[in-house]
Fold each of these.
Amino acid sequence: MEPIVCESVRYVAECQDCGAELECWGTQALVQGRLEWDVVSSCAACGSAFAVCFGDIPSERRAQLLSEHGAATLRVIGPSARRVVIMRVLRAELGTDLVGAKSVLGSVLEGGYAGTLPEMELLARKLRAAGITAEATRP
């Protein structure tokens, strides 16, 4: 079993129970081959607390993760970088068509395809499972 890879951000929202400021912690994690987005929050004013597991990370929280932690890049290494295999993995994982996968392939091969660390590690693991030497790195 591969280790969990995660990044978290703190933000505030309005408490649904009392309207006060609610402290929230959002975490994007790569767990058992899939990305998860979880939020834990608590209100100092009324004591309300909750935890919610979502499917996709909200775009504003993804932007916050990238701003606070920096982008990770997907890197393929050496002679194992077979274009057809990489494109097959990209199409399956990103849900894109052939033209989109070819565009992403160019970014990957140039070392410019970036995202959150859990996102890039998911793609790196899928590529490694397909026989491509790949890693998620941060400059």
Amino acid sequence: MKWTELCIYTTNEAIEPISNIIHEAGASGVVIEDKLDLEADWDDSFGEIYELNPDDYPEEGVRLKAYLPVNSFLGETVSEIKQAINNLLLFDIDIGPNKITLSEVNEEEWATAWKKYYKPAKISERVTITPTWEDYQPVSTDELIIELDPGMAFGTGTHPTTVLSIQGLEQYVNDGDIVMDVGCGSGVLSIASVLLGAKRVFACDLDEVAVQSAKLNVKVNKVGSQVQVRQNNLLNNVNEQADIIVANILAEVILRFEQDAFRIMKPGGVFITSGIIQAKKQQVKDGLENAGFDIVEINQMEDWISIIAKKPEESR
């Protein structure tokens, strides 16, 4: 079978929204080649992931690569992707040069291309994410292992926004907690919540492809009895009370449901938000405070921000 490699030259700011666009167009995963990964002063407190090869990265900016089957709809699909990326300008997202190239690969090359990018990564004190095909052995007795298949997942779980979210969950999830994972994508945050002690997780995403991806990953990690995945628009018509709400999505989307988050949050509950660019930090902070939350932490990894807020014990 023939596949087309779609390569998009863009910016770090546009990684998450363009990745979502590509997934919605039918690609089963995205390769991220970010020049900043070569320049970053990596925190080695969790152990080195693997050596990066400069030849795999652009001279500047970011390359996003995805693989689409060669069929009669390919031209239409690519056109729709281009239009959706251009529409990001309406949200003041810098899409950079937005240069798109296409090249043809065969199925064997495609499979090899995926797997060379993904290795086990220890992303917090206790959580390690590993591809399903790696024979990974825990290095400590309290290590928590999440298995993901990038062929069916939305990313590998090692993007800074996801790392910030998992680190927040590791700090705030208590045994027996009820967690809401809004915009669940691959379901990695739902899986991490259960491994960290959550009693139940309600995971939702508007994208049906994401819902199916999350269900598969939940099954692979044997937490299906504790995680309920469903298609839903943010927290619309959700009335279950939560101890923790986690949302790794765009700042603009967080600001569409901060009041619903406050409504269903138990007093003393924690709202973990991520996927926020520096320019939107104050806007999200103000929105959370206006909804009634107290800001307890603002964390940063590379250019990404995570804001952790708490509902007062006695709501104002």
Amino acid sequence: MTVRPLIGITSYLDEAAWSVWRQRAAVLPQTYLDAVSRAGGTPVLLPPQGGGVERLIGALDGLLLAGGSDVDPARYGAEPHPRTGPPHRARDEWELELLSAALERDLPVLGICRGLQLLNVALGGDLVQHLPDETHQRLPAEFVRQGVLVRPESRLGEILGPTAQVNCYHHQAVGRLGTGLRATAWSADESVEALELPDRAFAVAVQWHPETDPDDPRLFDAFTAASCKEAAR
């Protein structure tokens, strides 16, 4: 029987509305769950909470850091830009603990948008808090389709080849690279669009949103395949 790896996906903890209710809830776009399921994984939501990180990471076969709100600039020693969103400190703290435990265990990690930025900050890097030309985020809730150049001699290059068309929605970008990280993709304006930790089995993060593009499952397939190896150990 084929092993379906357990993939933990970080999520929002925010006010939401359904039926007659409006209250705090753990929420995540269905596109993340669908992308993991299509690739052969079993998605498990990981909303911000107190404790249990080591046990969770020990039970998972892969960690997906999902998109979301801006990382608190205090995490990289900066004052907030006027366009930086309000901090969600509980989520930052929770995801940084999950990421640290996952990297220590060499659990497969995939970061998406905020997830890429969190990985960079976790390893001592910083962020450009607002991109003035708005080429990566033009209208609310509308992805920008654009091309990226991929470093051929990288894990991402093995998966996608030298170029890819991707869906972007971000107003921040990587500034100073964190320790050990390698930039592996760039947009036309030279913004970093992907990072990797070369000394890990699978630690890849992209600034775009591959979960919104079911016609190109290659990144999720590769992440799930790495997680299958973890599940089989």
Amino acid sequence: MTTETTVISPLPSNLAIRNLLEDLLGRDVEVTPGKPCSVGGAPGAAVALYVDDHLRSAAVVVFDFALAAHAGAAIGLLPPGASEAALEDGELPTNLHENAAEVLNILASLFNVPGAPHLKLHAAYAPGEVLRSDVTEMATRTGSRLDLSVKIARYGSGALSIVTF
């Protein structure tokens, strides 16, 4: 008789997050302790669901609206005015959402460390998009989570939450 044990994916370190974002965005990035990101309300948040090789949910990453806009503009090499306009309008244009989703996809690499399950991006929800109820529950869990404030040089600040299970 074999029993299957579930291994929780470890939370990445602040340094690993900062280094990955700096390398990816080509900008200085500051990462400091922050508050949990809200996944409801307007204008909403960008939410990523990561699954293991058996398609079991294993992690959720949340970018508040501001971080989704700033990261989306920075990776797309758009001027800071692009994210500022999105913040003023309270709506994330398609190109910024797609760019932010690419950042969320690359963040999967933070979970793929020796001894942990291999994770990949399963779904990336745009700010304001209705989340599955289980994704909302996962994003608001306490326990194995990391809540950060992220500042991208020349673009601005936002919040990032990571929850593993």
